[in-house]
Amino acid sequence: MKSFLRKIGGPGPAIIFISALAYRLAYFLTVRDDPLVTYVDAVPDASLYHNWAVDIINGVGPATAYYIGPAYAFFLALVYKLFGVDLYAVILAQTVLGAATAALVYVLARRLYGSLAAAVAGGVWVFYLPAVFYDTQILPASLMLFLVTASLLLLAVALDFGRRWFAAGAAAGLLFGAAALTRPNLLLFVPALALWPLLRRGAAWRAVAGFAVPVILIISAVTVRNKVVADEWVVVSSQGGVNFFIGNNRGAPGSFMSPPGTIGRPEALNEIQTRGAGGGRVRAAGDRGRGVAVVAQTRPEVPGAEPGRRGAALRPQDFALDE
Prior knowledge:
- The protein has helices spanning 2-8, 12-31, 35-38, 44-57, 71-83, 87-113, 115-126, 129-134, 141-158, 165-180, 190-200, 205-230, 239-248, 268-275, and strands spanning 292-297, 317-322.
- The protein is mainly alpha-helical.
- Strands 1-2 form a two-stranded antiparallel ribbon.
- The N and C termini lie far apart (67 Å).
């Protein structure tokens, strides 16, 4: 036990974990009745993930290529399956993940830069308010940060494992592949992470191979799924082009806006893409001269949930589609 504590930095990680957990629980108690926490409809993407998770529990899946990364929806479905459809259960699970991430930040910083850096990095993460805030949201940030940090730590450990580099690198790749299924743009960092061991030690090719193999396998499985289900070669999700358009069209304000040509709530495009509503396509800017059909979708109510609160389903939404 003493040997293990020395390897991870003594009691430091435990202190960081307990401090981070206590701070996050105190924050949760102050915001537990806030609409952003109690109303799943308050955040469009939260509504999408929530309803997707309920569909998973009911054995229903999208008949199109994934519009967003699927990992967080399956995480939600697991929590709902274990504890019931309750947003507070999700938030408490994410609070534990957030506290664990703080401890992992401490251990990673200590391994790479020493005790002082570990104390500073871990202490900063305990009180880093954006991370604390997202721990209380039905969004993938907490899960993604935990998986990425754990992956980086295992990759750092892989450099010290000698002949066991492949196994440690593979564990890092497994976690990073799962993280990429929460936010597919993380795949842009794979080349840099794969080269990191080579920059530190020229003979670390086993760690590089170990890291790359599970990432490739995980992403390939989702790519094949998209091809089989939707007959489209989509690597993970199809939202990249839409997001690029939202952020770079001539009318982009610098923050989120519904794409020109759509009406209703911002998640309309998400619903259309994930469910292929009406078989139509979203009208783009300048797409004129064609009729617009307004399609209403009603999501099934979640058993035992008060409408609009703590796990309630979406109300009917209106989407603008080309006929």
